[in-house]
What does this fold into?
Amino acid sequence: MWPAGLWPTAGVNTLQNTRRKVTTARTAGRAEPMTAKEGSRRIKACSAFRNRTPTPPFEKIKTGREYRGGVVPQDLSKLLAGGVDLDQEFEHATKTLESIGLSGYEARGYIALVAHGYGSAETIAETAKIPRTSAYKVLQSLCQKGFAISTRGRPTIFKPEAPSKVKGRVIDHLEDTFAKLDMLHEVLRSKGEPQLVYTIVSKPRVLEKIGELIDQSSETCIVSTPTFSEIRENVGKKIEQAIARGIRFTIITEPGQKIPEGASVVNRKGLIATDVIVDGSAALIAAPDLSACGYTDNASLSRHLENFLEIIMNLKE
It folds into this structure.
């Protein structure tokens, strides 16, 4: 059992040399020289390994020097060197994605897709901590919004759009939006007209204002939004009543959403803000989550915003 000339000391995980200073330990079919000191060290290591406390596959990482559960990639190791809290970073990324129009589940689902590289709805649901019953619908919504793609087959496998590609698309839309605002600002300043823009805060009040605008429309109403289903749920009857009055109702929204009968629809991907213009005389621009909006009854400002939306409608995908 023990190499010739080496015997365990009673009660201690060490070897005692009883015959010579150097002997051999047979490992993997070959003999290698091993001193008594080396033998003692190896036995201690084996004992420590046998008595170790198992660690879970993933633990919160506090420094880049230690990573329980795997080898840290070089770039990630540099990121963690300053004591990054991954839970905190995850929440920050989630809130950022929500600010550009994703729901909480969609944001968590996209982050999980990026972390995995690909996965089924069940896998992503487990990682993102979203209900399995909602996972497939959430991932399909990410595909419609350009954040993911899906493969045919069973089970359906989802892959994330590259973050750099999503970032570029969002930046393009933001630049377009602020270019629009700069144009409107310059038009009003050149005409010397006051900028009568009122701020409305809280989703219920924003939805209420959208309903008021639809009610007061007499000829036209244009609604541009990535979340038309939410608007329809809250002011759907007002939309139907406006159409029944003969209002030319146009909706610019993401593909795959249910549109009221009698309304014209223009499908556009990557929409961020919600815009509502009625009769070219009043307009509203709301945040992606409808938590706040700016409203104006300045006819000049409203007409320029309406012209901009008409350009969007006429663009080819």
Remarks:
- The chain has three domains: 6-50, 86-161, 169-314.
- The first strand starts at residue 6 and ends at 8.
